[in-house]
Specification:
Layout (H helix, E strand, L loop, with lengths): L14 H5 L1 H17 L9 E5 L8 H14 L4 E5 L10 E2 L7 H4 L1 H6 L5 E3 L3 H10 L4 E5 L11 E7 L19 H7 L2 E5 L6 H9 L4 E8 L11 E5 L4 H10 L4 E6 L8 H13 L3 E5 H7 L4 H9 E4 L1 E5 L2 H16 L1
Length: 338
Amino acid sequence: MLSEPAFWWRRGPGAASALLAPAALLYGAAVEARWRFSQSQSADVPVICIGNFTLGGGGKTPTAIATAKLLAAKGVNPVLLTRGYGGREKGPHFVDGEQDGADLVGDEPLLLARQAPTIVARDRVKGAERAVAHGAGAIVMDDGFQSPGLAKTLCIVAIDAEVGVGNGWVAPSGPLRARLSYQISRADALVLIGSGAAGNSVAEMMADHGKPIFHAVYTPAAKTDWLKKQPVIAFAGIARPSKFFSGLERLGAHIAESVPFPDHHVFSADDAGRLLDLAKAKRSQLVTTEKDLARLKGPQPHQRALCKAARALPIVLKFENERAYSDLLAKALASKSV
């Protein structure tokens, strides 16, 4: 996957954004038209969609996992539904965390499947039907906010507070998938992840529309003492690798070198060789994200070698007011059962 243009995340208007404005107008209009005029099909159980306003990562997968855990705590059997970006499986297909690789189902479904039954399906309506047949009490969609095919009971949007919605322009002029005002009109709640002023304007717009805002942070899912025992070579192929690197430093890690890759990057033999050589030369531990490590569990020898040498930092999403978020989910469950 190609890296997002740097100008997407710069504040204020720029020459590149203005130059691409006609294409952005067409793109945004097409997304909105599809939303307005497409027929949606309902599922027999509540459908809770975790999406974002922008292209690329914004915290959807950790939010979907946290949501599924809260539903399970209520005694509801959640099934996670995802398109499976980066995989060749069209589905509907239940992800087997032991047998399936990222080349088949994508990297994020492998993380989702550790938490709850997970279906990869390009056709989300068929995926929902499969989930219901499996006995789902609720469906949690990872992405699909802008996809109108499957009707949603509740639409929750996750954004990174540090970067917000970037320059606020629609793609390709910026990272937005459609006009922010229109997307806000279709959303039910906002999850603002981390700290930073960039997300404040979005939160204010949501509040002006009377929609709830929930604050959340990433925290390590296990002890992190091992990060301080030796220098680390940090590498990541996620939407914003710098966020991962700064998080390691806050935990006390000494980063001998950081190596960023594009989101969903498929590691080549050269990539693996370079990282393994760096770790040996600098007597450092290779550290990456859970998503990257899942993607390395593939059939190629260089992938296996890098996977064996690297260690992941597991994280979880914690809500500052978990009870209020849980209450929102409960209302969605109740509204579907009426």
